[in-house]
Amino acid sequence: MTTPRRLLLVNGPNLNLLGTRQPEIYGRDTLADVERLTADAAGRHGIEVRAVQSNHEGVLIDAIHAARLDCAGIVINAGGLTHTSVALRDALASVDLPVAEVHISNIKEREEFRHFSFIEDVAVVHVVGEGVPGYARAVDLLVEVITGSADG
Ligand code: CA2
Predict the structure, then answer these.
(1) Family, per the entry (predicted)?
(2) How far apart are CA 145 and CA 3, in angstroms?
(3) Which residues are known binding-site members?
(4) pLDDT for the residue numbered 2
């Protein structure tokens, strides 16, 4: 089977509020800006993006399961579920797709409860603390993994 030219972008709980509060931590870009920037980055590689954001863990898990059928990889900012959800981690591990973990803020330099990520060791790409532009870098690095080249 040929590799699908599509990525799944997953944004977890509360990321629908981006750009509305805590700009000192998360900046002023909105979720729509994040989804556009990610689609533009993928588009430069001839790849499309299916974006999902939900405040409900099961919706995210269902989207990850569905990606198995028609996506080549997953870019995920799981929000607070990063630090709590074995179920989300199990979903990512079960689909056998390369995963890029993104965090807008540097979780390693914030409160101690944010230091641990259940997703970290099921992801092959990590972009942390680079703000919203980090989503574009995650796409570039994930495409390298998928195509096995530095210019995929
Ligand atoms: O830095 C990140 O990207 C986080 O994944 C964002 C999560 C946080 O729980 C993680 O520890 C780190 C929180 C997203 C909440 O986003 C908001 C945006 C604007 C206003 C309020 C919340």
Answers:
(1) Belongs to the type-II 3-dehydroquinase family.
(2) 12
(3) 77, 83, 90, 104-105, 114
(4) 81
